[in-house]
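User: Can you model how S-adenosylmethionine sits in this protein?
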Amino acid sequence: MLTLVLADSELELVPPEIQGHPAIRSYARKRGKSPAGILLDSSFHHPAMKRLEQGERRGRPDIVHLFMLLCLDSILNSEGRLKTIVHTRNNEMIMIAPETRIPKNYTRFVGLMEELFKAGRVPAEGSPLLTLEGGKDLKAVLEEVGGKAVAMDPAGKRVDLQDFLGKKKGDLTMIIGGFPHGEFNSPAKDLCKEMISIHEIPLKVWTVAAEVLVSYRQGASGKR
Ligand SMILES: C[S@@+](CC[C@H](N)C(=O)[O-])C[C@H]1O[C@@H](n2cnc3c(N)ncnc32)[C@H](O)[C@@H]1O
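Assistant: Here's the modeled complex, given as structure tokens:
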């Protein structure tokens, strides 16, 4: 079983310190929502985000959207061999049931995440497809998942991914940073036995996720 963790992902509601900014208020009004109940999104809230610490990397629900689509629509997931987890910059852990159908449409995805932040689970009744739990730093997430964890990092040890995964036995957890640039905020280096790089250039999150999802199956053929 492979567990893919998107760590330190830039998914959060608009923080209190910028909820009164005119750009946020007018965006919230257009959507008929309260500024406290909308996702921070750098495409729309850029002027207000200059005031935020690490504002240049925050507000990227699009990265989480693409990551979830790739994981949940993957062959590995359809074979029941993938667990998908999103960890956020504010130490929330989002568990995603493998049968979840993530909306392809970005606006609908944003609405779904806002519902999740509000209720802590989706759907509100019956067995949940998505659950959000606070107070889960990356260490707690990895303890909950168990197994060996490997972090993906452009500055890590260079490997041939298929070959690397083919040599791994048993359950494996791979961590990908869910931010557009910079380093992990969490102590990924201390929490993982290995940090690996799969190419000399820094890649997009979805490119790395796609490589892992395919290489895990190929490296695993006949071995797991
Ligand atoms: C878009 S990168 C952002 C970080 C990167 N330091 C940068 O400034 O471009 C997000 C994540 O993708 C993964 N990643 C990007 N390029 C990689 C590479 N060449 N090898 C392994 N992982 C990579 C890492 O997990 C990284 O945290």
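A couple of observations from the model: The pocket of S-adenosylmethionine is lined by residues 152-154, 176-177, 179-182, 197-199, 202-205, 208 (CB under 6 Å). The mean pLDDT is 95.
User: Helpful, thanks.
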